[in-house]
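On clarity, I found the account of how folds are encoded harder to follow than it need be. Since the whole study asks how a given chain folds, the encoding of that fold should be made plain. For illustration, here is how one protein appears when written out as sequence plus structure tokens:

:::
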Amino acid sequence: MPVTVRNFAEAGEAERALAASRTARFFGGGTLIMRAVNAGDQSFDTIVRTTDPRLRQMEMRGDMLVIGAGVTMAEIIANRDTAFLAPVARVIGGPAIRSMATVGGNLFAASPYGDFAAALLALDARLVPANGQPISIGDFLNSREREQGRIILSVQVPRPREARAFRFLKVSRVKPKGISLMSIAAHLPTQGGRVTSARIAYGAMGERPLRALAVEQALEGRSLDEAGIAQALAVATDGITPPTDALASEWYRRSVAPVHLKRLLLDHRK
């Protein structure tokens, strides 16, 4: 089946074109959609693109970093302002993938992909759509299946005030660029040596990136040492049903989650 490519100068126009067709797909970086084209996917016949310059911009607004949804993982790694996110971008595919994969595209990537989206969830990012008001990334992910026709212009990310407050760990069988068995992102602000308002997000532990609410609650007011994190490890998968897929079983993911969570919380990731 032939595929038609439609180009638009403005993201709002592209979004309206998507909304008007059930067989249109948006082209971000192309790492997923071009694989589908090459595999002969018959579920779409139109690719929608936009050259809207807002998708490529990055800027600081006080303590808020605004990243255009069209910014690539390679650009995240190269930019000084996004240095705290570089460890996440660095483990997404190889150099060729990182030069194409975009921040916005990762938001829509189905599990076990979406490591960058898990990091943004831990950082309590907000998303700015082409048409509409900014929304929290949590709300977006919870309704993602209904958002396939929406174009995200940019992501608003609060910068961690402490260098070690944000941590990320990817677990895969093939290093450094294998598909995730699981990923863990954590924002761990501290006050007086105690954790306050922790946010923990898992990737590849459900249909979409999700927060480990039981872990967050167990860490509140605790110190990041063996004794302080013990209860958090005990509830590492409470309220979560990990998937069984070609990479790992639910049992395996449940078994290794406390191990890797411990490494992350104690900052023993290497």
In short: Residues 166-265 form a domain with the Enolase-like; domain 1 fold (CATH 3.30.390.50). The chain has three domains: 4-50, 54-158, 166-265.
